[in-house]
């Protein structure tokens, strides 16, 4: 089934070139189907890139999804035209009386700050509180995973001596969990972060389940409340060239730039990336939508609590 997206969203044309079936609001309203409502709080600087990455993965489900983009009133992005934000995004204040089957909160380039130092932390705390009664299942990515674990469960984040950067193998701690349906024994996940949450803190909290981890990159996926909250420390949504663009953006500008681990063919940045995570990304998002959103959300969306 297609995704229902705001009319003229740039991701529509980009994904049509990949033969992904998307439907704008005008056409979708002519169909008598109860779509799953998914809110995306996009905190990444390059909004269009992140929109496209997430929509690409959400399109893998056979269910019809209605995507809404949320923005913060307390933060104005510097790298996305204001016209784009006004056309395709709504303030949380406008969306707060609505309920959603699923929600995604993206990472943000603020991980070197303490959470309380982040300019929009108060509004984000309000959204996190709201999601507990207005969303069936929320997926937190990278910095948002650290922020959610800290806000809900008091899990601290720790600075890393060097950036965790590359593609790292992950081991399933609970291999029979529905989120891992179709996964191999080892799966791969991109990481791009300067801080971490630690295994011992997760295991010490009885409300949290460690779902996946890596000997090299540490905690990978954490789950709470039976899947109503899922925290992913990496970026399964990344496109094949994302780490390459980050590497080339920073090399020569920062003194801590290193070659992304396990990414380029033969570890040679002159060769294209070896993509090892995309099938797992599609499975992960499909399983999230199917088992943790569709099969648990009430038919009457107003019954979410």
Name some characteristics of this structure.
single chain, 305 residues, 10 helices, 30% helix
Characterise the protein shown here.
- Helix 1 crosses helix 3.
- The chain is α/β, with parallel strands linked by helices and 305 residues long.
- It is globular and about 50 Å long.
- Strand 10 (208-214) and strand 11 (218-224) form a beta hairpin.
- The protein contains ten helices and twelve strands.
Any chance you could write out the topology, listing elements then pairs?
Blueprint: E1 3-5, H1 10-16, E2 22-24, H2 25-28, E3 36-41, H3 47-58, E4 65-71, H4 82-88, E5 89-91, H5 92-95, E6 100-105, H6 121-134, E7 135-141, H7 143-153, E8 158-172, E9 186-196, H8 199-203, E10 208-214, E11 218-224, E12 229-232, H9 242-250, H10 278-294
Parallel strand pairs: 1-2, 1-4, 3-4, 3-6, 4-5, 6-7, 7-12
Antiparallel strand pairs: 8-9, 8-10, 10-11, 11-12
Helix pairs in contact: 1-3
């Amino acid at each position: 089934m297609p995704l229902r997206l705001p009319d003229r969203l740039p991701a529509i044309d980009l994904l049509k070139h990949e033969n992904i079936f998307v439907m704008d609001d005008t056409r979708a309203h002519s169909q008598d189907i109860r779509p799953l409502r998914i809110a995306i709080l996009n905190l990444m600087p390059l909004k269009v890139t992140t929109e496209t990455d997430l929509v690409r993965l959400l399109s893998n489900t056979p269910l019809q999804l209605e995507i809404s983009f949320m923005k913060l009133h307390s933060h104005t992005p510097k790298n996305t035209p204001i016209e784009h934000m006004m056309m395709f995004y709504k303030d949380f204040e406008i969306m707060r009386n609505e309920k959603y089957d699923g929600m995604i909160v993206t990472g943000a380039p603020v991980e070197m700050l303490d959470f309380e130092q982040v300019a929009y932390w108060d509004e984000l705390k309000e959204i996190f509180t709201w999601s507990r009664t207005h969303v069936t299942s929320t997926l937190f990515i990278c910095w948002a995973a650290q922020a959610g674990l800290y806000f809900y469960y008091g899990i601290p984040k720790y600075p890393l001596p060097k950036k965790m950067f590359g593609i790292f193998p992950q081991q399933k701690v609970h291999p029979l969990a529905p989120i891992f349906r179709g996964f191999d024994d080892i799966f791969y996940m991109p990481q791009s972060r300067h801080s971490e949450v630690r295994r011992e803190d997760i295991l010490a909290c009885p409300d949290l389940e460690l779902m996946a981890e890596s000997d090299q990159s540490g905690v990978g996926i954490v789950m709470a409340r039976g899947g109503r909250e899922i925290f992913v420390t990496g970026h399964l949504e990344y496109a094949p060239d994302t780490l390459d663009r980050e590497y080339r953006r920073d090399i020569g500008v920062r003194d801590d730039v290193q070659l992304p681990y396990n990414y380029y063919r033969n570890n040679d940045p002159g060769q294209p990336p070896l993509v090892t995570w995309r099938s797992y990304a599609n499975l992960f998002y499909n399983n999230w939508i199917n088992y943790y959103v569709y099969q648990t959300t009430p038919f009457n969306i107003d019954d979410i609590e």
